[in-house]
Design goal:
Mean pLDDT: 94
Strand content: 15-25%
Structural class: alpha+beta
Distance between the termini: 48 Å
Number of strands: 25
Strand order of the largest sheet: 20-17-16-23-24-25
Length: 529
């Protein structure tokens, strides 16, 4: 249990409290957040295991698993701080993205949820008209559309479990399912609709039937839930949820957004000169703008929590998952020592980052362990090995490699939007490390700022909640009152020059040089399965 006292709680301040359920890949959290951005208390429930793999490359989880975890966290929170619990005025939910499930008319899951890490593929292709396919081919989007179709779990269910699809009343993101369990309403926030679903981020609602790319995710309109704007009511805590969570029946549930959308807001990045970087399982760089700016050609900017605003974003899909991979494969010594000390193994590893110079003495990692829309055959690579390199060199190369990829993404965002970032705000698990924050400042050559809490997605969700409650007139006022900078890391420009040369002369060229080999590896692998 973590508790904090409101930094601005004093004369003239009337404290108000909301409850945020923050569901991630590795854990679910219940947080009590006040109207000054203080986390009054928090309970974390680990996901063990975070997903099930009935077959290779599959990642599933019982949909009820997530609901059970937030209920368990809520019960512990209520027992641990009953006085604050009684002050709860509203509830909001923020979750991982692109995690979907099929439910029947009663809202019961018809199968396990598809976790975003799932890599199974449908075998068909979108049912485009001949004219539409010619048009897509002329702009180089036909193969991308086919790939997105195959990655879509709705299409996989239609092909492989037609009886399940026939029974499906709604195809929901996990956020929509949790909202249903809490309120009885099948509705979700516009800022949560990030996944392989037919959502129009420009119009902040479902794509119309005649939209060019609608056949990629051709889910019938009647199987899609109602969309509401962040800050609006999604319903109230129903009797069954009150019994499960210990919340008062009738408490309002207010729309916020996905974990990344809430993280951007919780970092205070509501103007375009501020870049938001997330050091999470998926690492991202993003920002907020009132212009519809595609981060990459034909890739939409996601609907932001701020109405009529967007979050263009570049993702590194396996981001800080690579740290978990490294721990499992190379860091048994640190894991054992950390267990004895009662601290995370990452803390011991991060202390050792200072032993390795910038650039890892020529060791450079390309972190594209999972292909994406624009790099469908990408794989990970590490180059420059010599006899001076140790496993700690590899660890630092992972941190630097993720940052090189994020720097690449930030440069693309600047090019697409026509502006230059002035400062970086960091969130996610990696942002808790002073060493990683300083490396980031040195690599980007910009000040790196860390907010008052690393639970920035929870704070962002609470901000949407308070704005919806009328506590603040707008998001600008809410951010001013609820977000503050705890630490600033200023770049060492000598170190930055080392990184600049490595980025310009080495990292930027790796993918282009290796891409033909990745493609051939993909062909060889596919021919043997």
């Amino acid at each position: 249990m973590e508790e904090s006292i409101g930094k601005n709680a004093g004369k003239g301040f009337t404290e108000r409290i909301v409850l945020v359920f923050d569901v991630g890949t590795q854990s679910s959290r219940a947080l009590l957040v006040n109207n000054r951005g203080d986390i009054k208390a928090k309970v974390t429930e680990k996901h063990d295991p975070p997903y099930l793999s009935p077959e290779t490359d599959w990642a599933e989880q019982r949909a009820e698993f997530y609901y059970e975890k937030i209920c368990l966290a809520a019960g512990k929170l209520k027992d641990g701080c009953p006085a604050e619990w009684e002050k709860i005025e509203a509830v909001s939910v923020t979750t991982i993205r692109d995690t979907t499930l099929c439910v029947d008319q009663e809202g019961k899951p018809l199968r396990n949820a598809f976790v975003w890490l799932d890599n199974r593929s449908a075998k068909g292709r979108p049912g485009f008209s001949k004219m539409a396919r010619v048009m897509l081919k002329s702009i180089g989007m036909d193969k991308t559309a086919d790939m997105q179709y195959r990655k879509s779990k709705c299409n996989w269910v239609m092909e492989n479990e037609p009886e399940i699809w026939e029974q499906t009343y709604k195809f929901l993101l996990i956020s929509g399912y949790l909202i249903f369990r809490l309120t009885g309403n099948m509705a979700d926030s516009a800022a949560s609709m990030v996944g392989h679903v037919p959502f129009d981020h420009r119009d902040r609602n479902w794509q119309k039937k005649g939209a060019l790319t609608r056949p990629v995710f051709d889910i019938p309109a009647e199987k899609l839930c109602e969309i509401r704007e962040p800050g609006s009511s999604l319903g109230c805590i129903q009797a069954a949820a009150a019994a499960d969570t210990g919340l008062r029946e009738g408490l309002p549930v207010i729309a916020s957004g996905s974990d990344k959308a809430c993280e951007i807001l919780g970092l205070g990045c509501i103007s375009r000169e501020k870049a938001a970087i997330s050091f999470g399982t998926t690492a991202t760089v993003s920002f907020t703008t009132d212009r519809y700016v595609e981060p990459e050609r034909f890739i939409p900017p996601y609907a932001a929590i701020l109405n009529q605003h967007y979050n263009p974003e570049i993702e590194i899909y396996r981001g800080y998952w690579l740290v978990s991979w490294f721990k499992k494969e190379f860091a048994q010594k640190e894991m054992a020592a950390a267990e004895e000390l009662g601290i995370p193994a990452e803390e011991l590893l991060n202390r050792r980052l200072q032993e390795i110079p910038a650039g890892c003495e020529g060791l450079i990692l390309q972190p594209y362990f999972t292909p994406n829309t624009t790099m469908p055959s990408a794989k990970g690579a590490i180059i420059g090995f010599s006899d001076v390199h140790t496993r700690i060199h590899i660890y630092r190369a992972i941190i630097e490699g993720i940052n090189f990829a994020l720097l690449d993404g930030m440069r693309l965002l600047e090019k697409q939007s026509g502006h230059t970032f002035q400062e970086i705000f960091v969130g996610g698990g990696g942002a808790q490390s002073d060493e990683i924050c300083q490396i980031t400042a040195d690599m980007f050559g910009l000040p790196v700022k860390r907010a008052q809490s690393h639970e920035v997605s929870g704070i962002g969700s609470a901000i949407a909640c308070f704005v919806g409650m009328g506590e603040f007139k707008d998001y600008k006022e809410a951010v001013e009152q609820m977000v503050s900078v705890r630490d600033t890391f200023r770049p060492d420009m000598e170190q930055h020059e080392i990184y600049r040369i490595l980025y310009e002369e080495i990292f930027k060229k790796i993918y282009g040089r290796l891409s033909p080999l990745y493609t051939r590896l993909h062909e060889i692998y596919k021919s043997k399965i």
